[in-house]
Amino acid sequence: MKPRAPRTLHLGLSRGGKAAGVKQDVPSRAAEAAHAFRALLALDDPDLRTQLMQLLAARGWRPTLAPDTTALQLALQTQAFDALVLDYAGAAWCEPDRLVRGTSPVERPHLLVCCEAGDLAPLLRSALPAQSYALRPADPAQLSARLQAMVLGGRGNLESALLAGALVLDAQGRCAFEQGRALGLTSREFDLLALLMAPAGALCTREQILAQLYRWGQDLESNAIDVHVHGLRRKLLLTRIETVRGEGYRLQPAD
Question: CB of 65 within 8 A of CB of 54?
Answer without folding.
Answer: no
